[in-house]
Structures are given as structure tokens and as C-alpha cells.
Specification:
The protein is mainly α and 204 residues long. It has 7 helices and no strands. It starts with a helix and ends with a helix.
Length: 204
């Protein structure tokens, strides 16, 4: 005969599965951080070392072409990060016998991507207005707000990641000369730290 506390624990687990998306992959967070590091490194090379002796340099590239190249790098990083998160989280769901597309996962996606999509559109508006120094702060701030919003429907630790992104975004907004560094710290360092913690806590 099962003890009452065991039954309560099972009921709690069933309620969490029905209301919270528990299949986020820690490894996906680590990979997202690595993608961001690489992207930030490429962007930094193009922006700050256009005449470097390593490689061909970018001093001959026009401002318009540089903007297109930077946007392309950002999109590649985004696609790789989202794709890795989707595939690895789906694998985790199958491994744990959880339903991936559930009401909880849909609420999580909606809560996360509404602020993120708004931030993306706002960033395009900044590009249109040639306010490039505010793009890094905007992406960090909107992403941080999305994570905080989505933390109600998944693992609570994601809220701390969102707060970290938000703080770095505000710092970058007041000190735009450090925008790329803050972006690399937020999307790179914080993702690797968060992903590592989640991997060792939930995925192993």
C-alpha cells in the first residue's frame, strides 16, 4: 500500500506535466551560447578589425553590405539556436515519455515568442532608423522579458536567465559602446551557464 506522501507526490507531478513545459533541454542552452559566441566573434571582427592581417579583412565592404552580413549572421545564430532547442527538447520529451506538443508547451511558446517577435520587429525599426547601437540592448531586453514571461509555464530557473538578459540589456542601453560585449555575455555566457546547470540538474 502506497503512503499518502507518495500519492501526493504523484499528483503533484501529474499537475506539473499538465501545466508546465518540462522538456527544455540544458544541452540546447549550451549550444545556443556557443552559437552566440561564434556569431559575436565574427561580428566583432568585422566591426572592430576591418583591416586585420588575419584573413582578407572587411575594410573594403560598404556600410550597407556590412549591415546585411551582420543581419545574416544574427539570423543564422537564431535558426541554429531555435532548431537545436526544438530537436533536443523533442528528444527529451520522447525519452521521458512526455507529450511535446501539449497545452503547456503551447502556452510556453506563446509567452516566450510574443515578446521575442516584438523585439525582432522593433530591431528592424531600429535598423530602418539607423539606430544600430540600440539593437543589442533591444534584443537582450525583449528576450529577457520573454523568458521571464515564459517562466510561469516551465522550469522556474529560466526566470533567472531572463533577469540576467534584462540587466545586461539595460546596461547596454546606457552604455551602447559595450553593446556587443553585453550581447555576447547575455546570449553566450549566460546561456552556457544556464544550460550547464539545467543539464546536470535535469538531463543526466
Amino acid at each position: 500500500m502506497r503512503k499518502p506522501e507518495q500519492e501526493l507526490a504523484e499528483i503533484k507531478t501529474m499537475m506539473e506535466r499538465s501545466t508546465r513545459f518540462l522538456s527544455l533541454s540544458g544541452l540546447a542552452g549550451i549550444l545556443a551560447g556557443i552559437y552566440a559566441f561564434v556569431g559575436a566573434g565574427i561580428a566583432g571582427y568585422w566591426i572592430y578589425f576591418p583591416s586585420s592581417e588575419y584573413g582578407t579583412g572587411t575594410e573594403s565592404i560598404s556600410a550597407a553590405d556590412l549591415q546585411i552580413n551582420l543581419l545574416a549572421v544574427a539570423l543564422v545564430v537564431l535558426v541554429l539556436a531555435v532548431g537545436s532547442a526544438y530537436l533536443l527538447s523533442q528528444q527529451k520529451s520522447q525519452r521521458n515519455s512526455h507529450q511535446f506538443w501539449s497545452p503547456a508547451s503551447k502556452r510556453f511558446m506563446f509567452a516566450l515568442f510574443i515578446p521575442v517577435l516584438a523585439g525582432g520587429l522593433f530591431s528592424f525599426a531600429l535598423i530602418h532608423q539607423s539606430a544600430y547601437q540600440m539593437i543589442a540592448p533591444a534584443t537582450l531586453i525583449f528576450y529577457g522579458l520573454g523568458l521571464i514571461n515564459a517562466s510561469h509555464f516551465t522550469l522556474g530557473e529560466i526566470k533567472n536567465l531572463g533577469v540576467g538578459q534584462l540587466i545586461l540589456g539595460l546596461i547596454a542601453a546606457f552604455f551602447p559602446e559595450f553593446g556587443l560585449i553585453c550581447w555576447a555575455l547575455g546570449f553566450g555566457v549566460l546561456h552556457v551557464i544556464y544550460g550547464s546547470m539545467m543539464y546536470f540538474k535535469y538531463d543526466r
